[in-house]
Write a structure and sequence with these properties.
Layout (H helix, E strand, L loop, with lengths): L3 H7 L3 E2 L5 E3 L2 H6 L6 H4 L22 H5 L3 H13 L18 E10 L2 E11 L5 E5 L4 H20 L10 H4 L1 E7 L5 E6 L25 H7 L9 E6 L1 E7 L13 H10 L8
Antiparallel strand pairs: 1-3, 2-3, 3-4, 4-5, 6-9, 7-8
């Protein structure tokens, strides 16, 4: 037989001369126009119906091709003829099981401006018994298919989150409103709006709050900033209900225990809180 290195030396313009493709239909030849990564990108759906067969070829007498000093095209013609006849002798009756639409294909490398281009060349027996070959090139339908694939990829990247049910993420991560009822009498706050808070002394420093520090309290900020509030005047504000804006996942229902074996293992192992244990 011929080792792969010898085939590469005899067929320098053939990519992997030890790998040939037998196409049984036009759809099969259309798949040869796609990039090899499409088999993985399609989750192996494009590999359905594709079979692999290992064949050992020998020449008789030994090293016949090397002694013959044939050109690359002559070597390819001999190999193609052998594949098309199912490795039977040329004069053997009934040799070859390929139909008129079946081809034997090999990948060729051509150079253009220092750039290598890979394309398949498929051959079959013609009406006159000779071998007819044609290069597999992209037709308009394949270009449309590739364009649609690119468009689908863009749509999947941009709009795939819209197909995820909101119950899987929105209820957990979007801020929810929690209403807290103050037990007993209403909570009384003394509020004064002042441009000079230092006049109340250092003992009131921890009670100072700037308006820009109030988050999600638009109603309260609008109330104290209105013209009805006089500066340097103390007002009493009674609070009966407190509306808290928190993430929904931080709220506990009445029937849910805040501590479990699962949460302990997750916090200590996955979130590396084991070092905080005493």
């Amino acid at each position: 037989g011929h080792p792969a290195t010898q085939l590469q030396a005899s067929l320098p313009h053939v990519y992997r001369p030890d790998l040939w493709v037998r196409s049984t239909s036009r759809q099969g030849r259309s798949l040869l126009m796609l990039d090899e990564t499409y088999e993985l990108k399609s989750l192996t759906t494009l590999a359905i119906g594709v079979e692999r067969l290992t064949v050992n070829l020998t020449d008789h007498p030994l090293t016949c091709l090397r002694r013959f000093e044939s050109s690359e095209e002559d070597t390819l013609a001999i190999m193609r003829s052998s594949f098309l006849r199912d490795f039977a002798s040329p004069g053997e009756a009934g040799a070859g099981s390929l139909s008129a639409d079946e081809h034997i294909c090999s990948k060729h490398v051509t150079g253009e401006a220092g750039v290598a281009h890979f394309s398949y060349r498929c051959c079959r027996f013609g009406q006159d018994g000779g071998i007819e070959c044609l290069d597999v090139t992209e037709d308009n339908w394949i270009k449309i298919l590739l364009t649609l694939i690119v468009i689908i990829k863009v749509l999947v990247v941009l709009y795939s989150p819209m197909f995820v049910p909101e119950t899987l993420y929105r209820m957990k991560y979007v801020a929810a409103q929690y209403l807290y009822h103050v037990p007993g009498p209403a909570l009384t706050l003394k509020v004064v709006v002042s441009a000079d808070p230092d006049q109340f002394g250092p003992q009131a420093a921890h009670k100072r709050v700037r308006l820009d520090q109030l988050k999600n309290m638009e109603v309260f900020k609008t109330m104290v900033a209105s013209s009805n509030w006089q500066p340097e005047t103390i007002y009493q504000v009674k609070v009966k209900d407190v509306r808290l804006s928190v993430k929904a996942r931080r709220l506990l229902s009445k029937c849910r225990a805040p501590v479990s074996i699962k949460s302990i293992l997750y916090n200590n192992i996955m979130r590396c809180r084991i070092r905080k244990l005493e």
